[in-house]
Specification:
Blueprint: E1 10-11, E2 20-22, E3 29-32, E4 42-47, E5 53-57, E6 59-63, E7 66-72, E8 84-94, E9 107-121, E10 137-139, H1 140-173, E11 201-206, E12 210-217, E13 220-227, E14 242-248, E15 251-258, E16 261-268, E17 278-281, E18 284-287, E19 292-296, E20 310-315, E21 325-331, E22 334-340, H2 351-359, E23 362-364, E24 369-370, E25 376-377, E26 382-384
Parallel strand pairs: 2-9, 19-20
Antiparallel strand pairs: 1-3, 3-7, 4-5, 4-8, 5-10, 6-7, 8-9, 11-12, 12-13, 14-15, 15-16, 17-18, 20-21, 21-22, 23-26, 24-25
């Protein structure tokens, strides 16, 4: 028997490959040459939008000692112009292994071998076209009805099987199937010791322009050579780029010289022009801010609408004589607190605390004196830890 193939080309009667059909054609016959199975396949037709589906049983004929599948294309599949998918499958009866007591019959196994796709060339329906069924086929609706009947039968058999298994389990739990323990068998003889393992050894020997590799395992030495690569050609002499910057009026000229040549870029930088309140003299920029300061006793005393370029100083509630104001400015139609002049020294040592801590850390060297005012004089060295 010819060995089955995973892919077979559809052809016409003369063996010419067929890749497309024409819309509204009738009674089209295709062939699959050199068929390698003993039985004829079934073909499931399905158009690309999956609106039409049918299944056709093919036949076998012998040509020059080889089997050939004869496939009649259902006329209903050529009424549209969508590509047609052909699922080529074999079916066989399969005997179930369940007990006859539960009454399960033989079922049929269908295995798809491969899929073909044929394009359908669009054309106008001929005036004399008359549709007729050219082959016996099973439409999808009939398959679904048969499938529903099969599911219902399967569910009924499943209930019977479940009842049988429950009854069998109860009988097993009651000990109905428990047998007596058999006698212990005779110990078997010890097996022959296996051969000692052998770890492969790899040796690399350096030669002239080559390396010899030897692998020694339980079967002996295995040698092969690895040639060294050739040295590459010397690269071109490198050139470090040189950047020169020159000034010409308002233009700054950048000149770069590298291995590819000279590149010049000019950047024009216009001179600044002094605006209102700003003066530029000899490159020195100075400005007059023109801000005023107003002082108020409380935030509630501020005017309902503030003015720009005015610092509003509001007295703070404090007993201190320093940092007694909060500073506000008028921004986005509201007063914005920009800070105060208070300096937070809570994390720093006072003079008294520093004297008490560091006085004991002074180590006096040769000819050093410290007077009652903690002044150091005539010292050679003072080490502070």
């Amino acid at each position: 028997m010819v060995k089955p193939t995973l892919k077979t080309t559809l052809s016409d009667f003369y063996g010419n490959p067929i890749s497309s059909l024409t819309q509204w054609d009738s009674n089209v016959t295709l062939y699959i040459n050199n068929w390698g199975y003993d039985s004829a396949p079934i073909i499931h037709f399905l158009d690309r939008p999956e609106t039409k589906s049918c299944t056709v049983q093919t036949t076998l004929e012998e040509v020059n000692g080889n089997k050939r599948v004869v496939l009649c294309v259902p006329n209903i599949m050529l009424q549209g112009c969508s590509p047609i998918n052909l699922f080529i499958a074999l079916q066989r009866n399969k005997q179930t292994t369940e007990s006859e007591e539960i009454g399960i019959d033989n079922n049929t196994e269908i295995k798809v071998l491969y899929k073909e796709e044929i394009k359908v060339q669009r054309r106008k329906q001929p005036d004399d076209y008359i549709y007729e069924d050219n082959v016996e086929f099973i439409q999808l609706e009939e398959v679904l009805e048969d499938l529903e009947d099969a599911i219902a039968a399967f569910n009924l058999k499943s209930e019977e099987l479940q009842e049988y298994m429950d009854n069998f389990e109860r009988r097993a739990e009651d000990g109905e199937f428990d047998g007596k323990d058999g006698k212990d068998g005779i110990d078997g003889k010890d097996g022959v010791d296996g051969q000692d393992g052998f770890s492969p050894l790899v040796t690399v020997t350096e030669g002239v322009g080559t390396h010899q590799v030897t692998i020694t395992d339980v079967q002996g030495d295995h040698d092969f050579s690895v040639n060294d690569g050739k040295d590459g050609k010397d690269g071109a002499q490198g050139i470090s780029p040189v950047l020169t910057i020159t000034q010409s009026g308002q233009d700054t000229i950048f000149t770069v010289v590298d291995a590819t040549g000279t590149k010049i870029t000019t950047l024009s930088i216009p001179r600044f022009t002094a605006g209102s309140g700003i003066s530029i003299v000899n490159g020195v920029i100075s400005a007059t801010l023109n801000w005023t300061v107003e002082v108020y006793n409380s935030f509630g005393d501020l005017p309902l609408t503030g003015q720009e370029r005015v610092f509003y100083f509001v007295r703070r509630t404090t007993t201190s004589t320093k940092d007694i104001f909060d500073e506000y400015v008028w921004v986005n139609n509201d007063y914005e607190l920009i800070g105060n002049t208070q300096v937070d020294l809570s994390g720093y040592l006072t003079k008294t605390e520093a004297t008490e801590i560091y006085q004991e850390k002074l180590t006096v060297g040769n000819q050093v004196s410290i007077n009652q005012n903690n002044e150091i004089s005539a010292f050679t060295k003072v080490v502070i830890f």
